[in-house]
Each structure stands twice: as C-alpha cells, then as structure tokens.
Amino acid sequence: MGEFGNPDIVEEEVDILIIGGGMAACGAAFECGPWIEQAKAAGQEIKVKLVDKAALDRSGAVAQGLSAINTYLGENDPADYVRYVRGDLMGITREDLVYDVGRHVDDSVWNFEKWGLPIWKQEGDEGKSLKEGGKPVRTGRWQIMINGESYKWIVAEAAKRALGTENIQEHVFIVKLINDKNNPNRNNPNRIAGAAGFSVREDKVYVYRFKACLLVCGGAVNVFRPRSVGEGLGRAWYPVWNAGSTYAMAAEAGAELTLMENRFVPNRFKDGYGPVGAWFLLFKAQSQNAFGEDYQQANYDTLKDHGYDAYSVGLAKMGTCLRNHLMLKELREGRGPIFIDTPAAMAKLAENMTPEQIEHLEAEAWEDFLDMTIAQCGVWASENIEPDKTMSELMPTEPYLLGSHAGCAGLWVSGPGDLPGTPDHYHWGYNRMSTVKGLFTAGDGVGASGHKFSSGSFTEGRIAAKSMVKYVMDNHDLTPELDRPVADIVEEIYQPVRNFLENRDYTTSVDVNPNVITPKNFQSRLQKIMDEYVAGVSTLYQTNAAMLRIAERKLEMLREDAARLCARDRHELLRAWENFHRILTGMAHMKHIQFREETRYPGYYYRADYMKIDDDNWKCFTNSTYDRKTGQWTLKKVQWVGLVSKGDAEAEAMGRPGAKV
Length: 661
Ligand code: SFD
Ligand code: AMP
Prior knowledge:
Bound molecules: ligand SFD, adenosine monophosphate
Distance between the termini: 61 Å
Structural class: alpha/beta
Oligomer: single chain
CATH architecture of the domain at 488-620: Up-down Bundle
Helix content: 25-40%
Strand order of the largest sheet: 6-3-2-10-17
Shape: globular
Radius of gyration: 24 Å
C-alpha cells in the first residue's frame, strides 16, 4: 500500500483516454459506444477509459443542475446560429466549428429528453417529445427551459452505460500530458503518448499510455481575485473546481492556443452569482441604474465612440460584452448600483394570471436558481428579498476563461473540413484535433467558437469521439512511448509533498516558511496580480502596456516559486497542481492581452491604451504556443476567414453605417 510521500504507481495502457467527466466528456463517452462496436465488427478492439478528478454524477459546470439548455436550434438554420455567435463574439469565430455544433446539437437534446430530462413544452404539446415535434418553451431564439436539477446525473448515467463503470476512474486529478518519444516529424515534434495524475483519495499515481486523448477539463475559475471574500469566498459563477487544466496541460504539451485574451465576465445577481438569462428572456425583466433610468437606451449611441457599434446588432440583440460595456459606463460614472426590476416583471406577467398561476410563477422565480445556483436563493433568503417585491442588484463578476459560454478562449483545432470555402488552416487533420497529434478537445477546450453551452459541449464531445476512434483505427500500429521515465514523472507530481516533508521542521508555521509556499498563498498572489494588472474587477477591467509589463514580471517570479509549492496532504497536492494550471492559464491570458493591441471585447476588458476596435490590424485570430523547457510564449496572428454570408436579418440589423459583422 502506498503512503503519503511514497505513492503506489499504477500504469495502464488504453487506446483512448477521456480526461474530464463533464458535458463534453459524457458526450464523448456516449458516442464512443457505437463506433467501438463498429471497430469491433471490423476486427479491432478499442479500449476507452474516462478519468475525472471528481465524481461523474456531479462534476463540472453542470454539477448543481441547470434551468435552461442554451443551444437548441429547432426551427433555426445552423447558418443563423453562426451569425449569432459571430456577432456576439465581435466578429472573430471559427465558423466551421460553430456550424458543426449547430447542425448536430439537436440530436443530443433529443437524447437528453429520452434519458429523462424534463423539457418544458408549450401548452397543448406537453405529452409530445421534441423529436416528435413537441414545441419547447423558448426563452430566447436559441434557449429552451428545462427542469434541470438532475441534468448531470442523467447525462452521466448515459456515459456510464456506454463505457461501463469499470472504464470510469473517478477522483484522479490529471496533472500532465506526456509527449511521445518518437516524434512524427522534426517540424512538429508533438505527438501525445500519455497522461499522469494522482488519486485524491489514495496514495497512488496513475500513468496512462494511449494513442489519443480527449482533454476536456472545462474552463478556468479563480485565476482572478473573486468578488466574493471572507465567508463567501469560494462562491463563483463558473465551477471553482475547473482550474484551467485544459489550457495549461495542452500548452505544456505544445498545443497551439487561440484567442486566450478572450474571457467571460458574466452579468450576475450580485453576491449569489445567479444567472440572468431566464430573468431577461423568459420573465422579460428590465435593468436600470440607481436613478431608475434605462441606461442601455441612454448609452447605446456611445458605442460609436470607439467603433464598437460595428459589432452591435441593435439594442435588442446586442452582444454580451457590449451589454456589459453599457453597464460599466454607469458604474464608472457613479450611477450604480444596477438593479434588475424583478417585481415589475412579475407583476406584468401576473396581469392575466389566476392566483394559482401566480403562485406557480413565484415558485418558478425561485426554482430557476434552486436548479442551478442555489447560493442565490441563500442570498435572497438571508437578505429578506422576495423577488416579486424587491429588486436585486446586478454586478459583472470576476473574469473566467472558457470556450463554451459567451467566451471563446481555448485550443486551436482542426475543423470538419466539409464546408464550402474552408481554408487549409481550418482543416489539417481529424475533426477537433489540436496541433498536437492525438490530442483532441471539446467544450470549453475548443477556442474561437463559443455559445455551445451544455448541449453544444456534449455534442462537440461526440464529434471529437467519432474522429478519435477513426484516428485510432487509422493508427492501429502506433505504440505510444513516453518521452521520459515513469519514475521522473512520479517524482515531478509528488514534488510539492517532498517540499513539505523536507522543510516542515524549518518553522512552526507552514504559512511562514521561506523554503515553501502553500497553495493558498500562491493562489492569493496569483489572483492579486491578475486582478490589479490584468484587468480584473479592481480596475473595472482596464489595463495597459505598462501594467501588463509589471504583470509579466510578477507572474514570471511567481512561476519560479511554483517549484516550491508544498502540500501537507493529498487535498493540498490537488490545490498545488490546480494553482499551477491556473498560473499557466493566467500567463497565456496576459500574453494574449499584451499581444492584441486593441479593445476587441469592450465590457470584458479594455486596453486603455488602445480603446478602439481595429479591424484593419486585428480582425484575426491570435494564436500562441508555449515552450515547456524554456518557459517562452510565442504569439502570432492567424488569418480569419468567414464562411457564412450575412443573413437578411443580420444585414438588416447591421445596416447602419460602419456595421461590419
Ligand atoms: O444559466 C478534471 N452553463 C449553461 N449551459 C446551458 O446550456 N444552459 C445554462 O443555463 C447554462 N448556465 C450555466 C452554465 C454553467 C454554470 C456553472 C452555471 C450556469 C451556474 C454552461 C455549461 O454548463 C458549460 O458550457 C458546459 O458544462 C461545458 O462543458 P465542458 O465539458 O467543457 O466542462 P465541464 O462540464 O465543466 O466539465 C469539466 C470536467 O473536467 C473535470 N476536470 N478531470 C481530471 N483532471 C483534471 N485536471 C480536471 N480538471 C477538471 C471536472 O471534474 C469536470 O468533470 S447559465 O449561466 O447560462
Ligand atoms: P446567462 O443566464 O446570462 O448565462 O444567459 C443565458 C442565455 O441567455 C445566454 O444564451 C445568453 O446569451 C442569453 N442572455 C442573457 N441575458 C440576455 C439579454 N439581456 N439579452 C439577450 N440574451 C441574453
């Protein structure tokens, strides 16, 4: 039996390793099923394993459940979905990837319903499934309402059925990907051969060898100092257990990242982080400033100031960052707080309702949060807020890095390749494979294509799984060989434990020890740097070249100290490596913001020294690679190519001078 500081080593070889157990991972597990069967019929046995740091039933962003599925196309054309995503993400998206999700996503939602997820239907269609033509209750053009408290359980069950529980390893945190010793070619030395991590429950290090892997560890939370402090610390909108593992491990393996300057700053119910979608779209609530004014209407014309109006499709359809931008103007100029008028919205809805229906409406107002952000109900209850009587404050949160919601940071991946006009640099290999051979991603991992949400992430996992199986079949002779000895990998992973054991007697307090740094202190330093210099909440999301230079220096010094991270127990070992993933993600974010000399995403962050949208120079992707050995980042511009024409509605909405979407 292993013991702390001397773990057992478990080595395992599979064909495909799915790293993560969230929406994309469950989609991949589900999709692997039939393709493996097909491979078996053709005489090839393919072994797939899924490894999650937590428990599949409740891991990832959907852990608490959700109240809506934000991507369901139904009667919509996938090309319109591309137009919507393109507009929301300020013009620069990989339209091949977005289209690919759009054309496949509904099948996933039909499956969710088949597996037992209750989907709200319009009156008269209650007994009819979506697949049979049942009309959903739409909140917006793309969003549908669900009773989703058990959403993740339902999806996880399907994944378990497809893979078999014996092929699912829970409570193992993957720390590193390992490249292949035998490079496929000199110019692209990166092929993937393995991954290593440790159990958070037992003293065991796991080393996997494989031909292909799907890296789907979600986005990055707690890279920035959060708004929640003291007793609320740990509360965030996005899941705190997703620590940038996807971006950091991929970068270390040599994969190209794209648009890592992008982040998501959601507008949320203050302190409880309750999402606003249902309130704005379903309940039709209005927001206002401290003086009861409609600040969006009042500020709309100011979008012209820096050319931001070029990417706004009218007040009613304005993109997410621009909505934030109009709100931030109020906060900056002292007209906050911002309120959401829940009583007026509910009163209006109740106008033609029976008392029974009104009671139901009030229950729904609570259930929206009970289903997915229970902390918001805690805030309401503890502050005596009844939403039908009292307005709530709204507040933009600390920044998160992600690729599946209204953001598009992530890996640069090969697309489907079948859309007319696809350029070569959008399609060089298997669908959703990164620039590292055998390394695939989906969901929050795929960059330049946001607005997938839960259903789109699951769907993208399916897309990736299908092409991974093909990759494995095409490369059945490939024998993965790790580029360094297993003993070195184990030593590397357990370094924080060694640091603790070797230095613990130096002082009487582990927090005050010149030889080591605790994960908590490390995280505080990281969050302070990111917050104060890289456009966090304390500067109202503003930065400039001088601030970024300081951030660069401080982050570099902090990264040096990462070698001194210590862990008193397995839980702290997890915290240590999570923070290592966070700092690499934070560095990528900082480098990209430094590189892009414009303000492409006003309301998410501002380069105060380059406030304009500069399409002449920056209507392009920004891609980076990281050299693990030297610690150097290399950045470059990559050409953006549009594949979907302007639609009538879009052209009409954008028909103002300067409109360029
Ligand atoms: O209201 C390791 N999301 C919403 N999507 C919707 O469709 N509707 C909504 O209503 C949505 N809203 C919402 C959403 C999320 C959250 C937190 C809230 C509200 C409060 C977004 C979706 O949930 C999101 O887009 C997808 O879940 C993204 O999927 P994916 O697979 O990319 O990430 P994941 O599900 O978080 O899974 C990550 C997994 O990785 C594991 N993991 N495993 C091993 N080793 C490591 N090093 C690991 N690091 C992480 C995790 O355990 C997890 O299993 S609303 O706001 O709009
Ligand atoms: P949220 O609850 O903010 O995560 O948003 C859920 C869904 O509603 C996403 O698809 C958002 O883009 C959309 N949404 C949220 N607020 C608005 C709004 N004010 N106008 C239009 N769409 C919105």
